[in-house]
Specification:
The complex is a heterodimer of chains A (about 325) and B (about 575). Chain A is of the alpha+beta class and about 325 residues long. Helices cover about 45% and strands about 10% of the residues of chain A. The radius of gyration of chain A is 24 Å and the shape is globular. Chain B has three domains: about 290 residues, FAD/NAD(P)-binding domain, CATH 3.50.50; about 110 residues, Succinate dehydrogenase/fumarate reductase flavoprotein, catalytic domain (Flavocytochrome C3, Chain A, domain 1), CATH 3.90.700.10; about 120 residues, Fumarate reductase/succinate dehydrogenase flavoprotein-like, C-terminal domain (Methane Monooxygenase Hydroxylase, Chain G, domain 1), CATH 1.20.58. The chains are: A alpha+beta (about 325), B alpha/beta (about 575).
Chain lengths: ~325, ~575
């Protein structure tokens, strides 16, 4: 089928370098991948097009790029799924990392974040003479996380990293989970304490973008949520994030409805009055936009609250 | 003035063999650096899906059985002293990998689980679902990070250098991101740069598998050995040639022809689909040649394995089948065919990775080591057993690293003229100066690949191989004048591809030379003009040396036989 690839290019060696789009029209089979298209351009139309690629089979993680606005592996993205006959596919380098040339980004920030989580097994004692014994299901579950190929696609589309480059990010957190959930690793508590710091596991806003784009089904955000849960179970010091989760549940149990002002007050704590004062403009705006119920800013329990309380009791008995 | 880096041991390549070697050398107290043209976890070791063999004695297995099956698999061309080392040390290396953190699949008791693989009667293949190579590679990378070893990533080696004594004492390389050259001095250099799959088109290999190490060693004077032994894997996808792991047959999948017959009954009545790879690939090719094919393919049928086995143990393969062939293995058989997969030959080494002979029976290059697919110990001889390649990388990577570190202790820092860098710098400049015209590196590579796949594949004969030799000669001439559009220094992928193509043409030439020399059929090297194995004349290795006039110089080495006398090979 006739396809146009609209590629964002950048040559740092030009005078006053600036990115620009270049279009290539070519004939491709619907079952071809975007990478096939890019290789065809390089081999037959323009050998100056720079990109990384290697395995062609979604295992090496080299060809992460944005295709029609979302990060993906070019080798795993079918032409057919990206466009229709005669229309255009837009290809750009990944986000949240500097561009070196054309579709090639600087992955150094990505690897720095991976290094940050001390990504190696830290067993308690000298190892046994044979293998560590470990439950089959646990290892099989972990191999799901281990299938991460470090392509950077989740980092590219992470909406937190877009505004805060200090966030450790979905790939590194998924990697951290791989150790926290490994029964052979003895550094769980220290790991969770580090991840509990600002820019760590509580900075994810649960936008699900990483789950959506991950080409290997690793589900980074689900791993982040699992880390949080384990952090709360291991009772590492509470943070706004963990208190938010706890207070949220408590409020529903008490009132059957989310009491937002109370959620803010109890999450930040009364002693944190500066942070609370910072919320006053939000309160005024809410009032102006009639977001505050006529009964007043704080909610009363909803009718039937007893049933909700019973649900909570039952859930706590059988989690 | 170019930059100079100095280490005791320099490892080129960051796949499993390279990282294992680096780690071993570091543990021996050497200063070590890794130099790699891609980031470590991008290496082609990722592609090893099925598993890693080891006979664990505490599970009632015997290393002798593993060794014998490897010898038999090699069609008696493997050196038995090396194979004994491989089989004896396998168990400890598997356990070491587990201790490093590899998440091997477990059995109900929580111990390491196994699956069956081709050419072996017993289930001794340890695995991580169907991405064992990737799972191991990432864990070795973790170990390298923990050891904080310097990694020069996205650096491209253009040549090895020698010191005043003619010893290999480093490499010249440039940083792909900047184009800047540097001299890396080292008392020992370990080449662990992987295979040469892209010499063929199609191939299961990644685009980075361009035989760099083999060509670098060859040009420097070290011999390549048994280069004619190129493995065609029985189950690859049509088109780009992507691999469907032997794990599928290991779990019990059938091979069917267009008439629905399990045709392996006629070729290997005992082992059936799990006969060794050369046997299965030849059987498939015969079925295809005799018209019992489906569009040039036969079928791999997994349906009877059931969804649970497919989802739990063949997950990635099923994903791959869905993505690249639009087939769900649980619903439909998948068309497959033999495809180029692995180079059994490579840089000749001893069992400690040395590319020279301490007994001086053959001529090599002092100071140079090699490990992994780029090396030829020789373990795999005429045909490699599935799941022996991962084992090769960790056992012989470790041994090469340890030996290189010990060797480095005996030497002072090498003295090398920095002017050597200029030679390679000038080569790159001259490539960049060439005008780009109609001829392209892509075209040359495709012609090379198709020629090799036509004349040096599952079945071979004299005339075809002579034709191939002429084609490669002509392509070598064209390589000298071919130009690229990009004249820049930053990430010039065209430049990298041009240099890689030069390496591949060397490899192609040596494969053809070896294949024309070996006038018999053994392992993967099957000649329709010499149908039988000929132990009298050809139970020996073929060494290929670079020569001034261009065509390889041939020499021979006897095969080392310890306890398994050659027998007729039946599966």
């Amino acid at each position: 089928m006739n396809t146009t690839l609209r590629i964002r290019r950048f040559n740092p060696e030009q005078k006053s370098p600036a990115p620009f789009f270049q279009e290539y029209e070519l004939e491709l089979a619907p079952s071809d991948s975007v990478l096939d298209g890019l290789i065809k351009i390089r081999e037959t139309l323009d050998d100056s097009l720079a990109l990384r690629c290697s395995c062609r089979g979604a295992i090496c993680g080299s060809c992460g790029m944005r295709i029609n606005g979302h990060a993906a592996l070019a080798c795993k993205t079918k032409i057919l799924s990206a466009t229709q006959e005669g229309s255009t596919i837009q290809v750009e380098p990944m986000n949240n990392m500097p561009v070196i040339k054309d579709l090639i980004t600087d992955m150094a920030p990505f690897w720095d974040k991976i290094r940050q989580i001390q990504p190696w097994l830290q067993p308690a004692a000298p190892p046994p003479t044979a293998e560590h014994l470990a439950p089959a299901e646990t290892m099989s579950h972990l191999s799901g996380v281990m299938s991460c190929i470090m392509c950077g696609v989740c980092v590219s589309d992470c909406t937190v990293l877009e505004v805060d480059s200090t966030f450790v990010g979905p790939a590194a957190l998924a990697k951290a989970y791989r150790f926290v959930a490994d029964p052979r690793d003895a550094a769980t508590t220290q790991r969770l304490q580090v991840l509990n710091q600002p820019s760590g596991m509580w900075d994810c806003t649960r936008c699900m973008e990483c789950i959506q784009v991950c080409p290997k089904g690793v589900g980074p955000m689900d791993r982040i949520m699992a880390l949080r849960e384990q952090g709360m179970n291991e009772s590492v010091p509470s943070t706004c994030g963990s208190r938010h989760a706890e207070v949220f549940a408590d409020l529903i149990e008490d009132k059957g409805i989310l009491d937002e002002p109370m959620l803010a007050i109890r999450t930040f704590g009364f002693q944190n009055w500066r942070r609370l004062l910072g919320l006053i403009p939000v309160a005024i705006q809410s009032f102006r936009h009639q977001r505050i119920p006529p009964s007043g800013p704080f909610h009363r329990a909803v009718p039937g609250i007893d049933q909700i309380k019973r649900l909570f009791t039952r859930m706590r008995k059988q989690p | 003035m170019s930059t100079v880096h100095t280490y005791d041991v320099l490892v080129v390549g960051a796949g499993l063999a390279g990282m294992r070697a680096a780690l071993a050398a570091y543990q021996q107290g050497a200063t070590v650096a890794i130099l790699t043209k891609v980031h470590p976890v991008r290496s082609h070791s990722n592609a090893a899906q099925g598993g890693i063999n080891a006979a664990l004695t505490d599970r009632g297995d015997k290393w002798e059985d593993h060794a014998f099956e490897t010898v038999k698999g090699s069609d008696y061309l493997g050196d038995q002293d090396a194979i004994e080392v491989l089989a004896k040390e396998a168990g400890d290396d598997i356990i070491a990998l587990e201790h490093m953190g590899v998440i091997f699949n477990r059995n109900e008791e929580g111990r390491l689980g196994t699956r069956r693989f081709g050419g072996q009667k017993r289930a001794r293949t340890f695995f991580v679902s169907d991405f064992t190579g990737q799972a191991m590679l990432h864990v070795l990378f973790e170990q390298i990070l923990q050891a904080k070893l310097p990694i020069y990533e996205e650096w491209f080696v253009t040549s090895t250098v020698k010191d005043d004594h003619g010893r290999c004492a480093g490499v010249i390389a440039f940083e792909i991101r900047t184009g800047n050259f540097a001299l890396f001095k080292a008392k020992a250099v370990i080449l662990a740069s992987g295979g040469l799959g892209r010499v063929y088109e199609p191939s299961t290999n990644a685009l980075i598998c361009t035989g760099d190490g083999m060509s670098l060693a060859y040009r420097a004077g070290a011999p390549l050995m048994d280069m004619e032994m190129v493995q065609y894997h029985p189950t690859t996808l049509k088109g780009k040639g992507l691999l469907i792991s032997e794990a599928a047959r290991g779990e019990g999948a059938y091979l069917l022809n267009s008439e629905g017959d399990r045709f392996m009954e006629r070729y290997a009545p005992n082992m059936m689909e799990l006969a060794s790879r050369d046997v299965v690939s030849r059987a498939e090719q015969l079925e295809i040649n005799e018209g019992r094919d489906i569009n040039g393919c036969v079928l791999l049928d997994c349906r009877h394995l059931g969804k649970t086995v497919i989802n739990d143990r063949l997950r990635q393969i099923n994903e791959e089948a869905k993505t690249f062939a639009n087939i769900d293995l649980a619903e439909e058989p998948i068309p497959i065919r033999p495809g180029m997969h692995y180079q059994m030959g490579g840089i000749k080494t001893d069992i400690d990775g040395r590319c020279w002979d301490i007994n001086k029976e053959w001529k090599g290059l002092l100071g140079l080591f090699a490990a992994g697919e780029t090396a030829c110990v020789s373990l795999h001889g005429g045909n490699r057993l599935g799941a022996n390649s991962l084992l090769d990388t960790v056992v012989f990577g470790r041994r090469a690293g340890a030996c290189a570190a010990e060797y480095a202790k005996t030497l002072n820092d090498p003295k090398i003229s920095e002017a050597l860098v200029d030679v390679d710098h000038d080569l790159v400049s001259s490539i960049l100066r060439r005008p780009s015209h109609d001829d392209t590196i892509a075209r040359i590579r495709l012609e090379m690949g198709q020629t090799m796949n036509r004349h040096l594949s599952v079945f071979r004969e004299e005339e075809g191989m002579r034709t191939a030799r002429q084609v490669i000669h002509a392509l070598k001439d064209r390589w000298l004048t071919v130009g690229i559009t990009d004249k820049g220094h930053v990430f010039n992928t065209g430049l990298v591809n041009t240099l890689e193509l030069g390496f591949m043409l060397d490899c192609a030439e040596t494969i053809i030379a070896g294949a024309l020399t070996r006038q018999e059929s053994r392992g993967a090297h099957f000649r329709t003009d010499y149908l039988n194995r000929d132990d009298e004349d050809w139970l020996r290795h073929i060494l290929l040396y670079h020569s001034a006039n261009g065509s390889p110089e041939i020499d021979y080495l006897p095969v080392r036989i310890t306890q398994w006398k050659p027998q007729t090979r039946v599966y």
